[in-house]
């Protein structure tokens, strides 16, 4: 070290340079007390002198480090959350042992005084190159950032073949029926020509499906005019980059056929073909041998095989058990959120839910996802997915997989809608069409029928939908025609379901677009006046002064002279059975009612005790 207190080892101070450089330091990191670093003032001074790691701490958390100048900065080894084995590394010459291998470090502050406690600062990821001396104690690797390279394709093919041949929870190796049309990509040695292939009825072939964002008008579409020419030959150079990349990956997987909606469904000149093929898309993705998700591409022209950027990292010496010195690399910010452009589109949710095997080309790396091995990088890299792909019940992919209970079915559907309704649709009227494939597949394992987005076994519960996170929803003029007003599909907002015990699950029926319920109905003016602090009102429309907050029993609807009615859907469970969940309705035409909202957590069960049931027709 020089006279300034700065180390000559790549600019690190002694405390940082010594993190992993001795057996004693490694043992200290793995101990409950952790590795004592600098106090805040010393860390700031070290950063000013140029220590790269101290600079990371001070620049990242200037207020925490600079303000608490007398607090000690400590490091502790993170406990192996992603490692499959638990060896002990022994250092015989020092009689020191390290009880587990490292995949990260936790940095925290430890305040002075008798009642001091830890304050978490940041978790860093530790990794090493596969050929480094430190690799045995640092199992995390840098990701394969060149996702279009031969090593990446080879590893993707390995993951696919392992899933197909040995995963117990995934569809077993079988050859699926080929879609009506598919692109014949040839083999990995094929040239610059592909062609449209017309399948014979019942023909069985492995095929890859592509899920991607169109991003506007498509440069190449299948039409009645070019169908014959495309069956003869399609120059690869004439195709947009995302489709070129999908052809390369399909060939690399050793699969000959690729399904792409723009090129395999007649987009112009035959509306009946388009309707028929769109109706088959759910089954098509479910049957696909593998689905490629071009998640990072905003448009078909973008492509998805570009090398990904690596995270910046710091290199420190790492003392190995055999006396060799390796290199530990330290980074942070290595989380996926998977909110890629593709995951903002409504239609692509069912493609993800119904595809049993996924190759997801995200913005940071290529991820494999199946029923058995979820959100897995090509190798155990420093990226840690912070959000999982939603999966449907495994019974979907298992022949004779059994029937799911009504309670579980309600949870599954609530999860699907929670994700679907935050996504965008170019045409909002597609709210039901965009999940039709999911509904078809769930019908078999639910043993149930879906009526305008509500399942019969959970119908009363699912009438209690609301616009999640919104004080009031949309303008009354913004009702969609794809579903009746009592369905969540008639509105454009994120949807959730309230939790309660239905009063009567069976006392209702659906007639075309009307639902007839037999319930106790009270006019709003007849509800006892006075505040009820537990009221929460979820309105379907904007109303004067309407907010999500506690209300008086007579609330804002009365201001415009429109009568409002309530009827109970159900009650709280257990100790909350005095609470009530009510639908809010207004009179419509010819004795019908229109749903306008939901009221929850009202201690008003007694309000309906002496009210006779009547038929209520919701439209």
From TrEMBL:
InterPro entries: HET, Pept_M12B_GON-ADAMTSs. This is HET-domain-containing protein. One of its GO terms (molecular function) is zinc ion binding. It comes from Trematosphaeria pertusa. The lineage of its organism: Eukaryota, Fungi, Dikarya, Ascomycota, Pezizomycotina. Keywords: Metal-binding. Residues 1-29 form the GON domain.
